[in-house]
Amino acid sequence: MTGVGLTVGRVWAQVTSLVERGSSFEVQAGSATAVGREGVTGFRVLPDGTVVCWDIDGAPMRIRTPNGEVELSPRQQITFPPGQTTALPVPRQFAPGLLEVQTLGPVLARLVDPDGLTVGFPLDDLVINQVLDAWTSLPGVQPRFFRVPGPDAGVHRLILEGNGTGPYSVRVTLWVDNTPLFERQWTGTARPGERLLAALTIDAQDEVPTGARLDEPQALSGEPPGRFIYP
């Protein structure tokens, strides 16, 4: 178990242990303790003391309070106003649209959004998730995917890196109201360490995606975009 105390601010955690199935991440805020297991969970404490917990994807999240325990299912959230320890789960309202990147074969994909935040797989057994409300498949599992609800308008950068030799496929889909607004799929042959970079531009009106364009992947020279620390 890993835990933190949160007095103000926001954190989201992705627990992806494949060995210790009992792994969990606990956040203690005020009189509530949120326990997230395998999956992606979020927590926020507002300056006035309001506590918000939400389950993005994966296993249910348990919220312990002095009045008992509440369970959140994926896509649910719960809000505790200042001084209150009783509340009911409600559906979490995600921003419009859903961007999905899926790969199959010896290739790792990650996406850097217009703010420079990264989600995806820098290594075969490692997930990076800096994008609020995004979630991914477990590392090392085929096919791999990551999904970003409410993707920001602007230029996103898709990085592909070979982690073996052989054929691979990549599919990029932008959904709005469960309808594919944009879809692009291609195949290639991976080589260990080879990196490709493609610009994905998302257009939007009133914060609702209206279309997307994906440039042809090009060989990447130099350091890839995105900032994070990993082994």
Beta content comes to over 45%
Q: Strand count, sense and closure of the main sheet?
A: 7 strands, antiparallel
Rg over C-alpha atoms, rounded to the nearest angstrom: 19 Å
Average pLDDT reading: 88
What count of helical segments does DSSP give?
Answer: 0
The class by helix and strand makeup works out as: mainly beta
Q: Give unreliable regions as ranges.
A: none
- Shape annotation: globular
What is the chain-wise order of helices and strands? Answer: EEEEEEEEEEEEEEEEEEEEEE
Count of individual beta strands: 22
Percent in helix = under 10%
Number of structural domains: 2
Distance between the termini: 21 Å
Task: Write a structural description.
This protein has no helices and 22 strands. Helix content is about 0%, strand content about 60%. It has 2 domains: about 1-90, Jelly Rolls (Sandwich); about 100-220, no CATH class. A hairpin with a 7-residue loop joins strand 15 (about 135) and strand 16 (about 145-150). The model has no long low-confidence stretch (mean pLDDT about 90). With about 230 residues, the protein is mainly β.
Descriptive terms for the model:
Jelly Rolls; mainly beta; about 230 residues; single chain; seven-stranded antiparallel β-sheet
Short description, anyone?
It is built from no helices and 22 strands.
Give the SSE map.
Elements: E1 2-5, E2 9-15, E3 25-29, E4 32-36, E5 39-45, E6 51-58, E7 61-65, E8 68-72, E9 76-80, E10 90-91, E11 98-104, E12 107-112, E13 118-123, E14 126-129, E15 135-136, E16 144-149, E17 154-162, E18 166-176, E19 179-190, E20 195-205, E21 208-214, E22 218-219
Parallel strand pairs: 1-3
Antiparallel strand pairs: 2-5, 3-4, 4-7, 5-6, 6-9, 7-8, 9-10, 11-16, 11-18, 12-13, 12-17, 13-14, 15-16, 17-20, 18-19, 20-21, 20-22
